[in-house]
C-alpha cells in the first residue's frame, strides 16, 4: 500500500449532486462512485467516462458480499474489473460483511461471526478478489445494531483479517463513532487495536438517532465527534484520501458539502501539527 497515491479530499458522487459537482469541480479532489450503479448500465458508463476525464475516480461497492459462503459471482467480478480499469482507479473498495445467502439478497450489510476462522477465510477471499480485479482492494468497517457474543471484538476481527491478506483498510470514522455509541466501547481503544498503517482512506458522514440508538443514515452534516476522531486517526497514521458521504438530506446550499470537503482536506494536511487525543 506504500505506493498508492494521495488523493486528498473527495465527495461521494450522487445523481442529485451531479450539477453542483460539475460547477464546483475545482474544490473537489476526487469522487467515489457506487460500483453497482455503473457495472451494467451503458449510459451510466458514458457518464463515468466524462467524470474520469476530470476527476480521479474510486469505485465503492455494496454487493460484493465478500463474507458469503459462496464466492462472488464471476460476471460481477468481471464487470467490476472492467469498471476499475475504465476508470483507471487507484483502488476499489467494499464492505467487510455479507449481503446475500445463497441466491437471496438481504438488502443490508450484515455483520459476520467474529472468529479467527471466519477472519482467515475472509482474508483469503479478499486476496483472491484483489488479484482477480487487478488493483488494490480496501475493506470497510460497517455499522451493526445487534452485537452477538463472539470470540473477537470488531477491531480484533479486522486486525485478524489484515494479518492474513495484503489488502488495505477503508476506515469509516462515522461507523466507528456510531458503533462505539451504540455498543458502549471507547473508539480510542478500537484504534489502538487496528493496524492503522493499513488505513488508506476514511469515510466521514453524519447520521440520525432514534430513541434507542444512533443510526447510519448519511443524511446530516459530519458531527464534531467524527471530526475529532478523524483528527485522532490522522495524528496516528498518514491517510491518503478522505470522503464526505451524503445519501439523503442534501443541503439546499451545496457549499455546506464543499466546506466539509475543505475541512477534511485541512485535517489530512495537518498531520504534523496534531497531537493524539487524551483519554478522560
What does this structure look like?
The protein contains nine helices and twelve strands. It has one domain: Alpha-Beta Barrel (TIM Barrel), CATH 3.20.20.150. The strands form three sheets. Strands 3-2-1-12-9-8-7-4 form an eight-stranded parallel sheet. With 280 residues, the protein is of the alpha/beta class.
Please describe the topology of this protein.
Blueprint: E1 8-12, H1 18-23, E2 30-34, H2 42-52, E3 56-60, H3 74-87, E4 92-95, E5 98-101, E6 104-110, H4 116-133, E7 137-140, H5 154-163, E8 168-172, H6 173-183, H7 187-193, E9 199-204, E10 206-209, E11 214-220, H8 224-236, E12 241-244, H9 255-269
Parallel strand pairs: 1-2, 1-12, 2-3, 4-7, 7-8, 8-9, 9-12
Antiparallel strand pairs: 5-6, 10-11
InterPro entries: MbnB/TglH/ChrH, Xyl_isomerase-like_sf
Protein name: DUF692 domain-containing protein
Organism: Actinomadura harenae
**Major beta sheet, strand line-up:** 3-2-1-12-9-8-7-4
Helix residue percentage: 25-40%
> How is the biggest beta sheet arranged?
8 strands, parallel
CATH topology: TIM Barrel
Query: How many strand segments?
Result: 12
Amino acid at each position: 500500500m506504500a505506493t498508492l497515491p494521495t488523493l486528498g479530499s473527495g465527495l461521494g458522487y450522487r445523481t442529485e449532486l451531479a450539477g453542483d459537482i460539475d460547477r464546483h469541480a475545482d474544490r473537489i479532489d476526487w469522487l467515489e462512485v457506487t460500483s453497482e450503479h455503473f457495472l451494467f448500465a451503458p449510459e451510466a458508463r458514458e457518464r463515468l467516462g466524462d467524470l474520469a476525464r476530470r476527476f480521479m475516480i474510486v469505485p465503492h461497492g455494496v454487493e460484493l458480499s465478500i463474507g458469503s459462503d459462496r464466492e462472488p459471482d464471476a460476471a460481477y467480478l468481471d464487470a467490476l474489473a472492467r469498471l476499475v480499469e475504465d476508470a483507471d482507479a487507484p483502488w476499489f473498495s467494499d464492505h467487510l460483511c455479507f449481503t446475500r445467502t445463497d441466491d437471496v439478497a438481504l438488502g443490508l450489510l450484515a455483520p459476520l461471526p467474529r472468529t479467527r476462522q471466519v477472519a482467515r477465510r475472509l482474508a483469503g477471499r479478499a486476496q483472491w478478489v484483489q488479484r482477480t480485479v487487478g488493483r488494490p482492494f480496501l475493506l470497510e468497517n460497517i455499522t451493526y445494531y445487534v452485537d452477538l457474543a463472539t470470540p473477537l471484538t470488531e477491531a480484533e476481527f479486522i486486525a485478524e483479517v489484515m494479518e492474513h491478506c495484503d489488502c488495505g483498510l477503508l476506515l469509516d470514522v462515522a461507523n466507528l463513532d456510531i458503533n462505539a455509541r451504540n455498543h458502549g466501547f471507547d473508539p480510542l481503544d478500537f484504534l489502538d487495536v487496528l493496524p492503522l498503517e493499513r488505513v488508506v482512506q476514511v469515510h466521514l458522514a453524519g447520521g440520525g438517532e432514534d430513541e434507542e440508538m444512533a443510526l447510519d443514515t448519511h443524511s446530516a452534516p459530519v458531527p464534531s465527534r467524527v471530526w475529532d476522531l478523524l483528527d485522532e486517526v490522522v495524528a496516528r497514521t498518514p491517510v491518503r484520501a478522505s470522503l464526505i458521504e451524503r445519501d439523503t438530506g442534501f443541503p439546499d446550499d451545496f457549499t455546506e458539502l464543499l466546506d466539509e470537503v475543505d475541512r477534511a482536506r485541512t485535517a489530512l494536511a495537518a498531520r504534523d501539527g496534531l497531537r493524539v487525543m487524551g483519554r478522560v
